[in-house]
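Expect sequence, tokenised fold; for instance:
***
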Amino acid sequence: MKEWGKACLCRLYYAYLRLLEKTVHLELELPENLKNGAVIGFWHEDSYIMNLLLKKMLGEQKISVIVTADERGDYIEYLLKRCHGEAIRLPDGNRCRTFMEDLTGAAKETEKILAVALDGPLGPRHIPKTLAFYLSETGKKDFIAAKADYSKSVSLSRRWDHYKIPLPFTSIKITMESYGVTGRKNIPRLDIGRMEASKAS
């Protein structure tokens, strides 16, 4: 019964995403340097609409999104697959070392795009972790910050990330700003959507 319920929710999330794809006005300008691969970071609150960004970016490039290994990641992975992307599940415990070695190898792949929620999976909100900047450094790829601004949306304020669900027939502007190659010791001050994020501790 649990698996049946999960399958129904997955289909519901995707059906709503398709509705948004048909009804929202999406304003987006992709950076030219994406053809060389990149590491894209976004706030966890924008996770849902980033699936539409993924569909806009798909071409000959390989795009992988790093997601949590727990049950929440199952829903994200389903949406990514329906949008023709790939989910890389972040493990816990002893498997992390091997995983990081594989992830570093993926970052070095030519034209590969990696995307990750900067403050995910559990916050604090708008305080970036170091993973995206580490991958930019090891893969010698530009770090690109993405932020969505909505004319109409529902914000789940009781969640730590204030997760945003855009409404149909709304306007969404996705801002993408390139910071060049970064690193764990070279985390930029982010100013996407008029918000600053302090350096992670």
Summary: Confidence is low (pLDDT under 50) at residues 193-201. The helical segments are 2-23, 50-57, 71-82, 96-107, 131-139. The first helix runs from residue 2 to 23.
